[in-house]
Design brief:
Radius of gyration: 17 Å
Shape: elongated
Order of helices and strands: EHEHEEHEEHEHH
Distance between the termini: 12 Å
Strand content: 15-25%
Number of strands: 7
Number of helices: 6
Length: about 200
C-alpha cells in the first residue's frame, strides 16, 4: 500500500525511499518539478533551499486536488550545492559543468537538502547540512568526468554516488543528504508526522 507521494522524479530519491522500505508513488508535477527555480533577490542559499522544497510540496497538494487523486502525505526535497554565497544548480551544458567543477576543485563547499512533508494541511520541514571537500582536480579529471554525461542532472554538476565519489576528500555530514534524500532526517520527519516506518 502506498504510504506517501514523492514529489520528485529523481531516481536517487526513489532508490533511497525503497532502501527505507517506505511505500510511495511518484507524483509528477508540472515541467518545473525538478528544474532549478530562480533565487529571489537577496535570498540566502539556506532560505532558498527550504523555500524550494516547501513550494514543491505545496504544488504536490494542489496537483492531488486537481487530479482527484487519493489524498496522501506529499514528500518533497531540494538539494543545493553552495560555494560561498553562490548556489550551483544543475549545469545546462558541458561548459557550465566544467566551470562548476573547476570552482569546486580543491575547495570545501556545503550541500543542503531541505525536506518538506505536507500532511493533513500541515507542513513539516527538516534540513540536512553537509560539508564536502574536493581534492584538486586536473583539467583531464574534469573533462573525463564530463564525458560520462553524469554531471548534467545533478546540483553542482556531480553525483557523489557515482564516478565523482573519487573527488571527495572529506565529508562531514550526511552522504545520503548529498545524494538528495538524507535518510536520518527523512525518517525523523515521517515519524514526527505519524507515518510509521517498517
Amino acid at each position: 500500500m502506498t504510504a506517501i507521494y514523492l514529489a520528485s522524479r529523481s531516481p536517487r530519491r526513489r532508490e533511497l525511499l525503497l532502501q527505507m522500505r517506505v511505500p510511495h508513488e511518484v507524483l509528477v508535477l508540472a515541467a518545473t518539478g525538478d528544474v532549478d527555480e530562480p533565487r529571489l533577490a537577496g535570498e540566502a542559499p539556506a532560505a532558498y533551499v527550504r523555500r524550494t522544497a516547501r513550494e514543491k510540496a505545496e504544488r504536490g497538494v494542489v496537483t492531488i486536488r486537481k487530479r482527484g487523486l487519493l489524498p496522501r502525505p506529499v514528500l518533497s526535497a531540494d538539494t543545493t550545492v553552495i560555494l560561498g554565497d553562490d548556489i550551483l544548480g544543475k549545469p545546462a551544458d558541458r561548459s557550465e559543468a566544467m566551470h562548476m567543477l573547476q570552482r569546486l576543485s580543491g575547495t570545501r563547499h556545503e550541500v543542503r537538502t531541505a525536506l518538506a512533508l505536507a500532511v493533513n494541511g500541515e507542513m513539516h520541514e527538516d534540513v540536512s547540512v553537509t560539508q564536502v571537500r574536493f581534492r584538486t582536480l586536473s583539467e583531464r579529471d574534469i573533462a573525463r568526468y564530463c564525458d560520462t554525461g553524469e554531471p548534467y542532472d545533478k546540483a553542482g554538476g556531480y553525483g557523489i554516488q557515482g564516478l565523482a565519489g573519487v573527488f571527495v576528500e572529506h565529508l562531514d555530514g550526511s552522504y545520503t543528504g548529498v545524494m538528495g534524500l538524507p535518510l536520518f532526517e527523512t525518517a525523523r520527519l515521517l515519524q514526527h508526522a505519524g507515518i510509521a516506518l517498517p
